[in-house]
Amino acid sequence: MIGKITIPFRILVLCIYLFLLGPMLIVLPLSFSNDSYLTFPPQSWGVRWYTAMFGHQKLMEAFQISLGIASTVTVLGLAAGLPAAYAIRRYSFPGRDAAMSLFTAPLLLPSIVLGLAILLVFVQARLLGTFTGLVAAHLIVTTPYVIRIMTTAFSTLPPSVEEAATMLGASPFTVFRRITLPLLMPGFVASAALSFLISFDEVVISLFITGPRMTTLPVEIFDYVESRTDPMTASISVCLIAATLLIIFIIERTLGLSKTIGK
Amino acid sequence: MNQTVDALSQRAGQRRFPLIALVLLVPMAIINLVAFVLPVLRLGQISFMESRSGGVLTGNYSTESYIGFLTDRFSLDLIGNSLFLSLSVTFITLCCAYPIALFLHRVSPRWRNVLFVVTVSPLLVSSVVRTYGWMVILGEQGFVNGLLMSSGLISSPLRLVNNWMGVTIGLVEVLIPYMALSLIAGFGRLDVNLEEAAASLGANAWTRFRRVVFPLTLPGVALGCLLCFVLSISSFITPKLLGGGRVFLLATEIYDQAVIQLEWPKAAATSVIVLVIFGLALAFYSRVVRRFE
């Protein structure tokens, strides 16, 4: 009896999970509404809003921009974060702990404050509403995760393993290809996936620095939801949730999400 | 284990030349400088700048933005609103996430992994999407009102969004995964043998929870509460969309001052005040945690 899961406890937990997942479940039926306004349950059914979504030029442009930004941020973030994480774990130098704190500090700052701060600097540097500006701003949010995950990955990979391979006659390239890379793979994939998703979903900082000519998908959806409520947002949401689920599923199948994020 | 690894890597590092380390750090340092250090310094600087009406900077320094904020009735209400909302949201989130964490702690490992993914996956879904979901559920012609109206329980729709109620519900849902993660991390000390011992000494279920289970999980509770408090006091998307322009908080005020009124010194000063509240919350948390140890 002690520590066992009773039926009322099960029901309570089920209700909380329904509450937690409710907003993501409700958009699926609504996305197949043919009504002009948001009514639930819908009066008529169809794929009208999916068609409208793909025909919405501004939305599709924002989607392409977001894809471009997220890919660039993922590549650049790994290119900058990986060497930094390696340096922090494998070398001892004065200010090593300070560097680690500084690189992960942006996580502590609320994004509304960070967004304003970035706006104040970027307006002088003429980076508002530019691809470069958005990439730089997103990098500051994604790199702390890269540094966190990769320093952990490096510390579970003791240099002695690489040294042993070298002693057994492996060339540096072989050591990297056969020992370092495979052992780092889970952390590498987790950082890349997380960077991509965070950049693709980033909205608060982007709201400050997007312009009429360069806007990202979440900002476009935010503006749309703020100005009008029709079922098109539900169709967009279903596509975004499906894409996220696909990424989670792939990571879970190949690496195990609880292993990569939980540790 | 980690200490051994650190010792090993430190020993290996001493043999190498640290100049390489500096070169490896340069790209990251540039990103950090351009998009974090400089902006934060500039934010602090602008908060002490004078501006004429319309937001034009005069170039002089003064504390007028701070004094203006702290002597204005509306601004002080914003602090009160934000504190009240964040504290109530944190408490409700704790009540919702605690059963989830306890369930995950007790369920079989196979289920635990599946449910862990279900619990954290909302974090990866855009907050705009999740907030829109709440507009569908709570809206005037939404799910809840539709259900209540068709069952004949109410004749006119309830007002569930565009007010504090909607913002509270939305924020609680957005924050549950964070709270659950913090709680799960702190549940390691919970041992079923301790509960059995308490039961054998005659404690009933409620006493066991109050005297054994809950005290053991307090470090996780403290961490989760700190995280949810700071996240809700700085939350912007959910209050903006579910508040419908009727819910005024520090975060929404920063955005309005900066983007709509273009009063940058005021927005910067408000941001600094939010950071001060952050600092106070963190200091309070450290004091509480020290008491556990």
Key terms:
heterodimer; A: 263 residues; mainly alpha; MetI-like fold; 12 helices; 75% helix; B: 293 residues; two-stranded antiparallel ribbon; 14 helices; 2 strands; 77% helix; 3% strand; globular; membrane (chain A); Putative spermidine/putrescine transport system permease protein (chain A); transmembrane (chain A); transport (chain A); transmembrane helix (chain A)
Q: What do you see in this structure?
A:
- The complex is a heterodimer of chains A (263) and B (293).
- Chain A is mostly helical and 263 residues long.
- Chain A has helices spanning 7-31, 48-55, 57-90, 96-104, 111-122, 131-155, 159-167, 172-201, 204-209, 217-227, 232-254, 257-262.
- Chain A has a single domain, classed as Orthogonal Bundle (MetI-like fold), CATH 1.10.3720.10.
- The two termini of chain A are 31 Å apart.
- Chain B is mostly helical.
- Chain B is built from 14 helices and 2 strands; from the N terminus they run H-H-E-E-H-H-H-H-H-H-H-H-H-H-H-H.
- Chain B has helices at residues 2-15, 18-47, 64-71, 73-106, 109-120, 127-138, 143-150, 164-186, 192-200, 205-216, 218-233, 237-243, 250-260, 264-292; strands spanning 49-51, 57-61.
- Helix content of chain B is 77%, strand content 3%.
- In chain B, strand 1 (49-51) and strand 2 form a beta hairpin.
- At the A-B interface, helix 1, helix 3, helix 4, helix 5 and helix 6 of A face helix 1, helix 2, helix 4, helix 5 and helix 6 of B.
- Chain A: This is Putative spermidine/putrescine transport system permease protein.
- Chain A: InterPro entries: MetI-like, MetI-like_sf.
- Chain A: Keywords: Cell inner membrane, Cell membrane, Membrane, Transmembrane, Transmembrane helix, Transport.
- Chain A: Pfam families: BPD_transp_1.
